Amino acid sequence: MTAELVRGQNHPLPQTRLEIRVSAGGPVVAGAVLGDERGRVTDAAWVAHPAAPHLPGLEVSQQAAADHRLAVDLDALPAAAHRVSVLLALPSGAGGPARFGAMAAPFVAVTGLDGTEVAGYTITDLDSESAVVALELYRRQGAWKVRAVGQGYAGGLAAMLHDQGLPGAAELAAAIEAAVDQGAARSITPPPRSSRDQGRGRDQGRGRDQDRGGHQDRGGDKDERARRPGGKNESPEAAGPGSGPVDYRHPGRRSAKPPQSPPPGRSSAPPLAPPHAVADERAGGEERADTSAAGPAAGPVAGDASGWTMDERLYNQVWGMFEDLARTVAAYRGAVDFAESRMEREIDGVLSDPRTRVGPAADAAREAARGKQAGLVAQARAVLDRDLGRLAAESDVVEHALPPAYARWDSPVWQGYQVPFEAPMALRLGDLRLPERDDLRIPMLMRLPLERGLWIDSGRTGAPEAALMASAEVRKAAMDTAVAHAARLLAVHPVGDFAVQVIDPAGAAGASLAPLLRSGALREPPAAGARGVSATLTKLTQRVDLVQMAVRSGAVDSLPRDLDTAEQLLIVNDFPHGFDDRAVNQLRYLADEGPSVGVHLMMVADRQDAREYGPVLDPLWRALLRLTPVPDDHLADPWVGHAWTYDPPAVPPGSEVLVQVIRQVGQALQAHRR
User: Is residue 392 very low, low, confident or very high in pLDDT (cuts 50, 70, 90)?
Assistant: First the structure.
């Protein structure tokens, strides 16, 4: 239900990707100003206006218009920005009214990307004002709200910018007016958006949810794949008058033929389509040009996918590569199975007739059947090798362009690592590969914030490499893997936005935890013994209860000021050692309810060690994404039936990269606490 706001009223925002739609009785200039926690504007770089329409997380129109659509991504705003003020002003040279009182009251609405209206505000009681702060989006206790403001200024744009605390307000106002005058020849009325364009802003497909229910121990959501025909997410629109969807595709990969929309409820390519048709599909149904007819194709390009930012485009490209590999190999295996079954049918036909069962004719028929089978397999293998070669070339280019959250530990990007100012959209958990080409490895990315806990299996998994290791070695490798994951999570979040706690009842993980302890990245030493287990779990479950109650009652503002709002990762080593029945129930509660309020679980455990609890813990194991400390093919993809081999994120032997990164994180945390 839409909230109709009056001046001063606020309303919670259910999502962070939004449009702000403005409708006025005549041409107006629309802009947006970012403010810090106290509402102060640091400088002109925090103002989005027609002369500079783009800011991280913001895009505004470049001319005066009667209708505007401003695009807002609250998650992409600078970390120091806590407020977005939407500004409207009458252009001085547009020939329209000089005051808002002479025109119909402007209407401002906050909507989702699909056009669903969240809140609306009609700005009434304006008279001589020629500029107005329409509304503001502000962050409070980690949640975003919208407030109707309606503060008008008779002194116009310069007076409004000056009141925002902006140095050089008059000069900036003049620059905005000049930009509007230069763009006056363009249409000031935005064209209507088609229903297809409106649908582009919605989250579609498996690319959003590699982590969410996607593995059975792995895989993807079949229904979500069916909603995502091209293997990549559609991008949200850059909402500005007259602008269409943002298109970051490389021109060398566009087909001369327009993409065909699939029938409702069906994918644009069947799961077992031929590999040359499947692997060429990209970004919502586009196809690469056929190089055999059109000459040499453009080389692979990093970021060749839709998205608002380079990180999102790389994320979507990685997912496109994963889906291309999945469907290409599925098509090859299907072709091999077809060739085998065809050969068997032909040989059975020869053997079923006593007259042709023996003799030269029978031998010739068998050889002919085997020859057909070999020819079909060779043809399928040639297509597979061609498509895998393309993917390998693209993987080489993309791997070197990945940011720290997506990069391997041996990537040069870590050598220039700096603590970030905003959290990424996803995290690399390792690599995935198939036996058809063992050296082609696709990053396994998990969306952030974590919606599913992780379980690092410290038992004998049956993997060949684990079979050669002693039990203690496997447990040590599992804890080292958990520390590597935790270090990356700490490294890719802004200072103070992510914290790690450890439960190590027997103190067996001291060697693995040493880098975190020495650097100060761990706020508290690992909890030991049954008492430490109980105290830590009780504290975290109480935090989950408190935040859940505040969110459900709409009273987030009333949370205690000393409540740590940072996301929490709890690493549990050696489960179930030190856990009684109450602690086990608390652990299950954190696994189920914690992620929704920023408390995440990572268990390092051997499921066989917990067999004394019987089936009571089965829901716990199923709720977690199982990973292994050594390569293992335990990740089953129900969509195409593959068993993916998972490679954990290994630090190169002898490398100090992880220690150096953790040291930087620890230094930043210590400075932040002071």
Answer: very high
- b or e along 179-208 (b: 16 or more beta carbons within 10 Å of the residue's beta carbon)? bbbebeeeebebeebeeeeeebbebbbbbb
Looking at the structure, tell me whether residues 163 and 233 fall in a common domain.
no
In a domain, 149, yes or no: yes
What sign does the CA torsion over 122, 127, 132, 138 have? negative
Same domain? 499 vs 594: yes
Q: How far apart are the C-alpha atoms of 402 and 391, rounded to whole Å?
A: 16
Q: Report if residue 207 sits inside a domain.
A: no
Report the candidate in 318, 298, 297 with the shortest Cα–Cα distance to residue 307: 318
Domain co-membership, 465 together with 393: no
If residue 377 lies in a helix (H) or strand (E), which one and from where to where?
helix 360-399
* pLDDT(265) > 50: no
φ/ψ (deg, to 5) at 308: -75, -35
Domain co-membership, 511 together with 629: yes
**pTM (2 d.p.):** 0.59
pLDDT in tens, 127-174: 889 999 999 999 887 889 999 999 999 888 888 888 888 878 888 888
Six token digits for residue 430:
């390792």
Residue 512 pLDDT more than 80?
Answer: yes
- Token duo for residue 189: 């009325």
Torsion of CA 442, 443, 448, 453, to 10 degrees: 90
User: In terms of Cα–Cα distance, which of 198, 205, 366 is closest to 285?
Assistant: 205
Q: What is the pLDDT of residues 439-450, one digit of tens each?
A: 999 999 999 999
Range of the domain at 260: 223-238+245-399
**Looking at the predicted structure, is the pLDDT value of residue 573 above 80?**
yes
641 and 557 in one domain? yes
Q: Check which CATH number belongs to the domain holding 21 and give it.
A: 2.60.60.30
The enclosing domain of 482 has a CATH number of 3.40.50
Q: Mapping DSSP to helix (H, G, I), strand (E, B) and coil, where does residue 28 land? A: strand
Residue 242 confidence (pLDDT) above 70? no
Q: Cis before residue 300, ω within 30 degrees of 0?
A: no
Whether residue 137 sits in one domain with residue 29: yes
Domain count, the chain: 3
H/E stretch holding 92: none
Q: What is the pLDDT of residues 187-211, one digit of tens each?
A: 333 333 333 333 333 333 333 333 3
Lowest mean pLDDT segment, chosen from 155-164, 498-507, 626-635: 155-164
Q: What is the pLDDT of residue 298?
A: 59
In a domain, 414, yes or no: no
Domain membership of residue 418 (yes or no) is no
Please tell me whether residue 208 adopts helix, strand or coil conformation. helix
